[in-house]
Amino acid sequence: MKKSAIYFGILITGSAYSSAGSAQSSVTLYGVIDSGINYTNNIQKGKTANAFSGGHQIAMIEGGSAGLQGSRWGITGSEDLGNGMKAIFLLESGFYSNNGALNQGGAMFGRQAYVGIKSDLGTVTLGRQYDPVVDFFRPYLASPQWGGYMTAHPSDLDNAQNTRRINHSIKFRSSTWNGLTVEAILGLGGVAGSFVQNSIWGAGASYAAGPFSAGAAYLNVSNPNLSFFGANPNAGPATSNNLGSFGSATSPESNPVFAGYASAGRMEIAAAGMGLTLGAFNTNVAYSNTRFGNLGSAAGPDPLHYAGTAAFNNVEVNLQYQMTPSLLTGIAYDYTRNGGAGGKEGADYHLFSAGIDWFLSKRTDVYSIAVYEKADGMDSTGRAAVAQITGLTPSSTDKQVALRVGIRHRF
Predict the structure, then answer these.
(1) Nearby residues of 284 by Cβ (< 8 Å), 6 or more positions away
(2) Is 397 left (phi over 0), alpha (psi -120 to 50) or beta?
(3) Are the C-beta atoms of 254 and 47 separated by less than 8 Å?
(4) Cα distances (angstroms) measured from residue 195 to each of 1, 165, 190, 300
């Protein structure tokens, strides 16, 4: 399967000496810059007690909000420790190419920051890291192949687009044995007197044989409003809705898809996908189940007085066609069902997308993406569901269309 990120860097090699003798080490600098122009037919400008006002928008939007990849730069390195072992590290900083600001809530290395040991058996790393859903489920979606953020599942509800990372985490990823790779992660909550509070744990696996591959993952999050959605430096306390604000009486919404479930005491994501590559064609099917459980806890605000569990089921089918070595196209359909909570009606989201990516060189490509979303029912805020293409401001109606032309350069 085509991978979404290929890093090109400047390799600096040197040597260091220890009591055991000479040890080789290396450091690599790499990065991605992705920017483009978006047209959106309708975004919220404000609201009243009964309705939203909206209008179309033309804007330059950073790749991390609507493009193929978030702009970033990073440093990765390794040192040979002997006996088949290496010390490794990675520091990766996300930024907005349209204004130069830091992404991920202003964190210096908000995308990733870890150090660890790699051996023939696998790799153990400690720091801020990706979860197994990102590592083993995301490759089967349109978003990392040709679609980017706008083709992600509504509001990235299953984190398959990697909107959130896990802080204070210990991660093990095995080497690949006969096509099988496994992974486990534990995010320490750090709360005195409680090992479970604010903790995160998960596991995943993938298998590849010839043209077929499959992956599955599970993530369990305690107090997600704080531990998961509140993991960036600009996040608020338990009284804030880090899942997405309801906003004021007049301001546009930020995340109506699941913002109403901020009081969940636990969040669980179970996901699986499979793909088949035949010549120039690659097709994938993916399913995820996201559950916000123990609603009404003290983890976050609960203005709608929810109780019980809100569950989202998501199914995606996508097709990629490599027309020429330098021209890639794709189409996808995604369906999401929110069953509702507390006896309130849920919502349905239908997402249609298409994209084309033209590689001018191994490092530079230009692309275009078109996305249409239709919403039905009642969303988590207790209002008639509106469309919200991931990364964009919600629509004032149940429909939203977005078109993007962008350029990406990797170094």
Answers:
(1) 1, 140, 141, 273, 274, 275, 276, 316, 317, 318
(2) beta
(3) no
(4) 39, 20, 7, 20
pLDDT digits (tens, 9 = 90+) for 343-393: 889 999 999 999 999 999 999 999 999 999 999 999 999 999 999 999 999
Residue 293 lies in a domain: yes
H helices present in 151-290, as ranges:
224-227
In terms of C-beta density within 10 A (0-12 exposed, 13-18 middle, 19 or more buried), how is residue 248 classed?
A: exposed
Phi, psi of 147 (to 5 degrees): -100, -30
Q: How many domains does the chain have?
A: 1
158-181 burial: b if 16+ Cβ within 10 Å, else e: bbbbbbbbbbbbbbbbeeeeeeeb
What's CA 76's distance to the chain center, in Å? Answer: 21
Per-residue pLDDT, averaged over 81-90, amounts to 97
Give a yes or no: residue 110 inside a domain: no
What is the CB neighbour count within 10 angstroms for residue 218? 20
Residue-number span of the structural domain to which 247 is assigned: 121-402
- Could you list the beta-strand ranges (E) of 325-398: 327-338, 347-359, 364-377
pLDDT band for position 161 (cuts 50, 70, 90): very high
Q: From 36, 38, 34, 47, select the one nearest 400 (Cα to Cα).
A: 38
Q: What is the CATH number of the domain that holds 379?
A: 2.40.160.10
Full DSSP string of 140-170? GSSIIIII-GGGSSGGGTT-TT----EEEEE
Q: Is residue 305 part of a domain?
A: yes
Q: What is the pLDDT of residues 315-340, one digit of tens each?
A: 999 999 999 999 999 999 999 999 99
Within a domain: residue 395? Answer: yes
**Are 235 and 229 contacting, i.e. CB atoms less than 8 angstroms apart?**
yes
Task: Provide the whole-model pTM.
Answer: 0.92
**Could you tell me the two tokens for 400?**
């939203």
Res 49 pLDDT > 60: yes
CA dist 220 and 186 (Å) reads 10
Q: Where are the alpha helices (DSSP H) in 8-146?
A: 63-66, 132
